[in-house]
Amino acid sequence: MYWMDYAFGYRLRFSDGNGWQITAIERLRSWLDRFACIMELKTSAPNGYPHLIFVGKSLGKEMHGEMPRLALPHYGWNLHDFRALRVWLHADVPHVICELGPEKGHDLEILRMLLSCYPVYHRAQGSGGLPFHAALIERNGIGVLLAAQGNRGKTTCCKRIPAPWHALCDDETLVVPNDSSRYHAHPFPTWSDYLFRRSQRTWNVERHVPLSAIFFLEQTDSDKVVPLGQGQATVRVFQSAMQVWDGRWHRLDGREKGALRRRCFENACELAKAIPAFLLHVSVGGRFWEEMEKVLH
After folding, report:
1. Angle at Cα 112 formed by Cα 108 and Cα 113, nearest 5°?
2. pLDDT (tens digit, 9 = 90+) per residue, 165-181?
3. pLDDT tens digits for range 236-272
4. 17 CB contacts (<8 Å, ≥6 apart)?
5. Do 215 and 278 touch, CB atoms closer than 8 A?
6. Which runs of E-coded beta strand occur in the chain?
7. Residue that terminates a domain, selected from 75, 97, 126
8. What is the pTM of this model?
9. Where among 126, 156, 185 does a domain terminate?
């Protein structure tokens, strides 16, 4: 065993009661502060949640601090190497270690933040959740997903939809089960806004709304909603989750990918049983939200 010291941290808590204590060595404090600011995380003393720990690559030399210490095993760690970020997971402990290299630069820092969501999504999927390549919109406290590939209208729909609708995010959403038949959705950042437009926007990742429906966008000449059967819905839910995972799994070995894909598909099956899904045909100037409202309860 060795001991990891931590002197500060942030809380990330989800609607299903699971969460993280996110901490880092002092040298990475400013990076973690920015990461936490983008996701509107609150500072927190140790809170009983598993630790997501950010360290430099000289791991053995950076175990210093003034606060109580966290015991971690020396051996048995499984490396998921994404080059910009190295993620260490262990079958016997819930804590995760993320290594950041010494290279610096704005784009690299944002890429590391994007990749840092990998262990969060990984743990959520293990508990029945799924990440979606989807916008999250809400009306009167009820959430709806608008799912589509990149540049297929999610952001445009979020900008066009009128009150009382409100867009919580326009790119990635994490959905977690709260009980056997209810799912809640959490908005996640649009990291490309920081990469390409130097955005200053933030997202309240702890905020959540009950999920009432999923709409898969298709650009057409007229607005229309088409219900999907459970089989079609399962495939499209799985595909939406894989659009998130493909950017984070490409460096994993075949066996790991296979296990993660199987769990992703199993979760997609369960979610499709509980949440109604539709095709949403969206025209350039139409009032697509009115078509959505006809099928929402």
Report:
1. 120
2. 999 999 999 999 987 66
3. 999 999 999 987 877 778 888 899 999 999 999 999 9
4. none
5. yes
6. 2-5, 10-13, 19-24, 42-43, 51-56, 69-72, 77-81, 85-90, 93-100, 130-132, 134-139, 142-147, 165-169, 172-177, 183-188, 209-219, 224-227, 277-282
7. 126
8. 0.92
9. 126
